[in-house]
Task: inverse folding
């Protein structure tokens, strides 16, 4: 395998399945050396005959002399601290921008300029930004000329860009599912909650689809999976998620899957997702994993819309009584009111183990991106879409108000023509719109 050294990670699609599995193998080697530390909550026990992982002292020399910059223009607890913990445990050092008001962004500095400067201070950069496509812009700002000036490549890692993607969280999610269930292929996974705004769901849906899982999307009508995500799942992975408004709909034996119109449904009261009287035990047992998300209130244009759907579903002990004994309950955290605290005591609640895996997953990723570790096996496939010929159009503005192309001074959009569909796709935020730049576009 050519390795990941010097590469950017903007989308989960930047990694092939083989590369994801390689990251998991290296993660498995780091976990034993961390037991009793940040992973004390993770289930212990090594399979018979498995090789012992490197000692903590050896782990602490992997990235000695390297500096990671964490640049966060949005609040973060798990992503920022787990990356910083990962780098420290690898023997590296960290510099950080944790508040945009303390950086030159508050003075109006362009993001591209900020990244070009920080790249001269650090060996890798993790960026979180409220604008969709910001991570790709950051990667493009480190062009060949800037690389030549620096004398090295500085990987950009997307720590979440608006409501777009969060690829390293997806690595944690997939790794947790594999550890809990033993595999990913063929699993029935329910994605529940705010599927419209949750970037973790968008990235995870791509990751699950490419490994052959079956997706069942459960959300209020106004918070369904975005159309551009659903179409990409079908176009690139042959996956058509089933959509329901409640577990009760999923359970109805005579209903089947009924395609629903994709309107926003503004002003409509949200239906409770969990209705114990309708949620049949047989259906609950057919779900291998349930991935729950909070209402992303900060991404609603109207606070009243967020309030209307707040508290529309709760995962509580009543649900646990009706799901399988091996069903895994996941949540990227933070939670608000969608998972009852009583659920924490159930062995199927894996969200704190899921958060703990963030350290070794990001240790493995950093070690590979910085060229301090290499993958062992030959590459199984190219990263998804890497060899596809694309027709780019630069004369059309993106219809998405939260796309980085509509806020970064002097920047132009870049649209891909999607065959004969009559649609254009923005290279930065993935939103689709009618060919010709019609306003509005798809949500």
Result:
């Amino acid at each position: 395998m050519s390795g990941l050294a010097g590469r950017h990670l903007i989308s989960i699609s930047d990694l092939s399945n083989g590369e994801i599995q390689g990251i998991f193998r290296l993660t498995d080697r780091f976990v034993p050396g961390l037991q009793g530390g940040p992973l004390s909550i993770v289930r212990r026990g090594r399979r018979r005959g498995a090789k012992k992982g490197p000692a903590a002292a050896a782990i602490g020399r992997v990235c000695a002399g390297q500096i990671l910059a964490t640049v966060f223009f949005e609040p973060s607890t798990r992503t920022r601290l787990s990356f910083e913990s990962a780098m420290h445990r690898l023997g590296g050092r960290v510099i950080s921008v944790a508040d945009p008001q303390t950086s030159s962004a508050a003075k109006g500095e362009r993001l591209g300029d900020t990244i070009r400067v920080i790249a001269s201070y650090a060996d890798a950069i993790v960026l979180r930004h409220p604008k969709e496509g910001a991570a790709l812009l950051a990667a493009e700002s480190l062009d060949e000329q800037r690389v030549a000036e620096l004398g090295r490549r500085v990987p950009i890692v997307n720590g979440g860009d608006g409501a777009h993607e969060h690829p390293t969280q997806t690595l944690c999610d997939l790794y947790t599912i594999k550890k809990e269930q033993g595999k990913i292929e063929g699993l029935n996974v329910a994605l529940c909650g705010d599927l419209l705004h949750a970037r973790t769901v968008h990235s995870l849906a791509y990751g699950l689809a490419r490994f052959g899982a079956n997706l069942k999307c459960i959300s209020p009508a106004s918070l369904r999976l975005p159309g551009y995500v659903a179409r990409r799942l079908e176009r690139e992975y042959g996956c058509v998620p089933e959509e329901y408004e409640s577990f009760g709909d999923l359970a109805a034996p005579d209903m089947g899957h009924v395609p629903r119109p994709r309107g926003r449904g503004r002003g409509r009261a949200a239906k409770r997702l969990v209705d114990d009287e309708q949620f049949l035990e047989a259906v609950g047992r057919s779900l291998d994993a349930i991935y729950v998300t909070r209402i992303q209130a900060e991404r609603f244009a109207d606070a009243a819309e967020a309030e209307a759907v707040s508290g529309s579903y709760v995962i509580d002990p009543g649900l646990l009584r009706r799901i399988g004994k091996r069903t895994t309950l996941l949540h990227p955290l933070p939670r608000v009111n969608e998972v009852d605290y009583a659920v924490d005591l159930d062995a199927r609640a894996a969200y704190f183990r899921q958060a703990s895996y963030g350290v070794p997953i990001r240790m493995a990723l950093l070690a590979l991106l910085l060229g301090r570790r290499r993958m062992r096996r030959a590459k199984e496939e190219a990263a998804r879409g890497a060899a596809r010929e694309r027709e780019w159009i630069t004369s059309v503005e993106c219809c998405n108000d939260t796309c980085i192309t509509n806020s970064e001074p002097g920047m132009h959009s870049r649209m891909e023509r999607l065959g004969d569909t009559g649609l254009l796709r923005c290279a930065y935020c993935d939103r689709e719109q009618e060919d010709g730049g019609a306003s509005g576009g798809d949500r």
Q: What stands out?
A: Confidence is low (pLDDT under 50) at residues 38-47, 253-278, 382-387, 437-441. The longest strand covers residues 67-72. The domain at 12-165+357-369 is CATH 3.40.50.1370 (Rossmann fold).
